[in-house]
Amino acid sequence: MPDLDLASDQHIRTTLLNVHELVRQLNAHLGPTLVATLAGVRDRGLPLKWATTDGPTPRAEPERRLRMAHRVWGHLSSAENEHVARAWFIGANPRLGEESPVMKLREGDLPAVMNAAKAFMEGTDD
Questions:
Q1: Over 70: is that where the pLDDT of 81 sits?
Q2: Quick count: other Cβ atoms within 10 Å of Cβ 100?
Q3: 2/41 Cα distance (integer angstroms)
Q4: Vertex 12: Cα angle to 43 and 89 (nearest 5)
Q5: How far apart are alpha carbons 61 and 64 in whole angstroms?
Q6: What pLDDT does residue 6 have?
Q7: d(C-alpha 126, C-alpha 24), whole Å
Q8: CA–CA gap between residue 19 and residue 67 (Å, rounded)
Q9: Helix or strand (DSSP H, E) at 65
Q10: At what angle do helices 60-79 and 110-122 cross, to 10 degrees?
Q11: pLDDT in tens, 16-26
């Protein structure tokens, strides 16, 4: 079962993080193409622009998706490692109707993605 303190700590870290730094981290771990996809934007160059300190910021809905992705990334990479976390984001997931978490984030199904991540970390992902 995920540590409640870890979940709370990751939520706090993500909430306090400047959106430019948050996107910079996601770009480093997932790549700007996947970040654009999960944010629900067509321009694959936007995540690179969002990651610059003086660059534009994402609109509210893409930012919600980005913050959820960052939270989930933090949980998974802490519980497993970065390679497992990346594979989890892009792979078909039985808890998500065999869709990838990236696509579910794009669709805005944030609770389903968090629940799937929790199940994976608890070892109940079947």
A1: yes
A2: 19
A3: 31
A4: 45
A5: 5
A6: 52
A7: 32
A8: 8
A9: helix 60-79
A10: 0
A11: 899 999 999 99
